[in-house]
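User: Structure tokens for this complex, please. No commentary.
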Amino acid sequence: MVKKETEFLKKLETKFKVKGRVQKERRIWLSISKDKLIEICKWMKENGYVHLSAISVTDWLKDGKYELTYHLWSYDDKILVTIKTKISRNDPKIDSVTQIWGNNAQIHERELHELFGVNFKGNNDLLPLFLEDWKGPAPFRKDFDWRDFVRKEFYDKKNEREMVYFD
Amino acid sequence: MIKEIEPAPKGSEYDFYFGPAHPGSGNFGVKLKLEGEVVVSARADPGYLHRGFEKLMEYRTPIQNAVLSDRLCILEPLNWNLIHAEAVDELMGIDIPERAKYLRVIMAELSRIQSHIIWYGVFSKGVGFDTGFKMAFGYRDYIMDLFELITGGRVYPAGYICPGGVRRDFPKDAEAKILKVLDKLKDLIKLEELENPAMNARAKGVGVLKLKDAIRLGATGPVIRGSGKKTDVRKDEPYEIYDRLDFEVPVRKEGDAYARYWIGIDEIKQSIKIVKQALKELPDGEVIESSLKKPKLKAKIPEGEVYVRNEISRGEAGIYMVSNGDVSPYRTKVRGPDFLHMIPVLEYLLKGVQIADVPAVYWSLNICPADMDR
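Assistant:
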């Protein structure tokens, strides 16, 4: 059942010396170091993975790492390859993939820059997307407690109606 | 037509804000730069509906999230229910009963039909054909009645499709009622196919998206199919029971608003076909996995990560869910089709368009701001 996937993964592993796994039919997960990202993504796009389905960030607070995931889909192979790479949480910097996927990647990165504070080197438009006049920290980080933030910023403990939020 | 009008003098650019609560735009704004009546550049201004679902889901259990996932998109809550449920099922390794699979597909397809009907309505409104708008919302109400009968909610089903199956079985007369409504929809399709000449004139050749650009900008669903790419997640990566069903994927080559509008109508027909097949083959049995009938509040999600993709009426939708073995997912990333349709694709298509054509282009993309802002 997963012959096509195993073959493709083997090809990737020998070419780039990376490690991956076949989860099930049509799903390959690949873990790489961040220096290889652009090289691998370029190769992937040349080999039919033209559709960048999504980019996501997972905040591993305990390890002090951000994990970036790039979900790529090939219309010909019909396989979804997820490329995962870890970067430091305190200084989140990574090369932008806008040079490969253009506007599609640009908008995903712009969102993640706003919500997680990741800096994408080479993306020239990282202006705020959703949050207007937001001055707090990046809101989707795990150490950002929105309940606490709202209490501090917007509620008054002495106000009778808003007291309940402090219990 | 545009060439006959004398172009506006250079340097006469002005800003025009389309939205954010404009009846023609939903809860979404576009900052347009105009020269005379022609759009020079457009910049999407999202955020009006941003509620931070991805963060909210980190605080809640899958049972609570099932209800939350309705709200991801107002126009097709059941499809988002389904994607969320599939993600949790896969993480927990649940095999759902056969009957539940059929019920899920029937509900998802009914939801797709009503979403396409709304699309027809708002698109008609956008190009100045008000009759179409009223007709569409009238017919949509029949499906709303079905939802009320089956799920209890007209718009939001409150997590009807939940991890493990569906919340409850069809009531006794549901099947007959569904078939009756599907028959009624034939009248709507007949009316839609009449081709109002005024509407055609407004839609033909407007907002042309070439296939190359569609792929580059990450378009999916009806938008990329309107540009000539035959792709559908239901066919490429069959989930639930779609591999057993017989249906076509409508494709058009022109890439303009007219082509996308027709894809919508053709897809209603295909969805009706799917629902009828599924009802015919509907097996008996349980509708929810036995361990989840009375779900435990503190049930833990096994460690792992999944990326689930579905085809919803506006394109490819996905959920990337990571669990570290806790009661709630560690991270949920929601990939809505409109995130790409409303920002890069729309910005690209609006360049050089007449201001009067902005609603036609905008609505031809079948847009819903809710799943873009999340």
